[in-house]
Amino acid sequence: MDRKLLLSLAKKYDTPLYVYDADKIISQYERMTKAFSGVKNLKINYAVKALSNINVLKVFKQLDSGIDTVSVQEVQLGLKAGFAPEDIIFTPNGVSLEEIEQAKDLGVHINIDNISILEQFGQKYPETPVCIRINPHVMAGGNSKISVGHIDSKFGISVHQLPLILRVVENTGMRINGIHMHTGSDIYDVDAFLRATEILFTAAESFQDLESIDFGSGFKVPYKENDISTDIEELGKKLSKRFNEFCKSYGRELTIMFEPGKFLVSEAGKLLVHVNVVKQTTSTVFAGVDSGLNHLIRPMFYDSYHQIENISNPKGKERFYTVVGYICETDTLGANRRITEITEGDILSFSNAGAYCFSMASNYNSRYRPAEVLVKDGKDYLIRERETIQDLLKGQNLDLNF
């Protein structure tokens, strides 16, 4: 999306504003399918938690994608977006048996990540096939808060507990139709990822009725110029070859599955903000904007980097700024950044705002969440209205008298 389009959208819809490029989403999806064209059966399940607007889900529905969900509410969103139950996989963590039963009743695929629920579910519903999430004990991810495959992670069943898994399966008579792992986000070392897949291949040999192997995702996208990212083409070539070899030895053509979120939508998103004030202190020049950690928590939450551009003055002289929000708490969005000269009233654009940005937004400080716009085939669509005071009051009892 070019600068003029973004400026026109900021003027049309006001700021702060999330803007998503459907064409970029589609090209990323097609890039991944092409990378794994060497396998017979490929299923990509978009991770809904990355960006859950129902209109974005409809884009993936048009691509014949499946979806990966982590809550019954995401399952329900997927169904409303038109996905068939068989195209939805439910991969929760730490939820009750009751929530898993709700997902079962909706007819979606179940992925279980702990022994306790596996045993309970197997005793009650041995006829319902499930997938098992294995923790391979491989550290991956750009930050400890997004690394989920290490030995201290709450996610998955330890690969060292495989004998216990098999005992539960045998005792309950349940059927395991898939095996799954997810090591973490921001994976850029293809060989490290492939080593983790070998652990999953070994575990898969213990199950006789598999239909799929799900290798998760977490593929890294570039956040700045010349940034390191996952070479999806190299991974596709190497993993496809190994997967085909495994299917041959297993004696059956399985489906290779992935659940990318960030890889598909991160680069498609921009957050547009208005500069309220430029404030110079003894050591820093602050650019204060009409947003903050309530709309973009990632920089404060796990030190994520979002490139910031002054699209109102793209050719101006560069200066150093610390871009901060309007929340009454430290909410630094970018510290000591080289940005073309900023004046009050300018529009700044944050890149890589498609994944885990709006979906993690809140009403902290009683601020409204932004509007969302989708651009597809050169046309812009308002896919979520900006909130109002009525949204903040919804659900609150206004009639009480104390």
From TrEMBL:
UniProt keywords, alphabetically: Amino-acid biosynthesis, Decarboxylase, Lyase, Lysine biosynthesis, Pyridoxal phosphate
Top-level taxonomy: Bacteria, Pseudomonadati, Bacteroidota, Flavobacteriia, Flavobacteriales
Organism: Aureibaculum algae
Known catalytic reactions: meso-2,6-diaminopimelate + H(+) = L-lysine + CO2
Any one Pfam family match given in the protein's UniProt record, by short name: Orn_Arg_deC_N
A biological process from GO: lysine biosynthetic process via diaminopimelate
Amino-acid positions noted as binding pyridoxal 5'-phosphate in the UniProt annotation, renumbered to this chain: G218, Y356
Name of the protein this chain belongs to: Diaminopimelate decarboxylase
Similarity comment: Belongs to the Orn/Lys/Arg decarboxylase class-II family. LysA subfamily.
Binding site for substrate: R298, Y302, E329, Y356
Boundaries of every Orn/DAP/Arg decarboxylase 2 C-terminal domain copy: 18-354
Top EC class for this record: lyase
Single GO MF descriptor: diaminopimelate decarboxylase activity
Assembly description: Homodimer.
Keyword Amino-acid biosynthesis: yes
UniProt EC number: 4.1.1.20
Keyword Manganese: no
InterPro entries: Ala_racemase/Decarboxylase_C, DAP_deCOOHase_LysA, De-COase2_C, De-COase2_N, Orn/DAP/Arg_de-COase, PLP-binding_barrel
